[in-house]
Amino acid sequence: MRARLTHDYYNGTNYGQIKETIATVDLIGFKRRDGLQELVSARFYRGRSRNASQVFCTVWIHGRSSGTGKAGGYGYCKKSAAFAAALEQAGIILTDDKGKPAYISGTGMTAVHQALKAIGRALGYRKVHLVCNG
Fold first, then answer.
1. Which of 23, 31, 133, 134 lies 20 to 30 Å from 110 when distance is taken between CA atoms?
2. Which residues of 77-88 are buried (b: 16+ CB within 10 A; e: fewer)?
3. Three-state DSSP class for 121?
4. From 7-11, 62-66, 68-72, the region with the lowest mean pLDDT
5. Backbone angle region of 105, left / alpha / beta, with phi > 0 → left and psi within -120 to 50 → alpha
6. CA 94 to CA 48: how far, in whole Å?
7. How many CB atoms neighbour CB 54 within 10 A?
8. Where are the domains of the chain?
């Protein structure tokens, strides 16, 4: 999977005060001259009501852009769907190795992890590590 950053767009929303944080994924990169850097943060939220089913995701590409997405309904991975919507809003385009669009919406968290690593490579980092919580 490959990522392309098309534009800098800041539309990230921190829902931490009004919604429950259900998961976080951070991408850490290493360059010899820069040391360790936090490259990307993804936060997943759900409403505080016990009936809440909609998932929200905010992605921050540090120093570049951010975006927010949401997903509701049943029968698919809402976290990856919300993440895909957030990437689209942040100006990130994902493709496979042949240049065709890579669709990760609703496909699971493994696809989210692959997309984050692709973003790290697009930012010029060869050594990246994911830190997941939840």
1. 31
2. bbbbbbbbbbbb
3. helix
4. 7-11
5. beta
6. 32
7. 14
8. 2-133
Count of C-beta atoms within a 10 Å radius of residue 89 = 18
pLDDT at position 134 over 80: no
Report the alpha-carbon distance of residue 43 to residue 16 in Å, rounded. Answer: 9
Under 8 Å between Cβ of 5 and 122: yes
Strand-pair partners of 41: 26, 60
Instruction: Check pLDDT > 80 for residue 127.
Output: yes
In whole angstroms, give the CA distance from residue 13 to residue 74: 24
pLDDT 10s digits, 10-25? 888 888 888 999 999 9
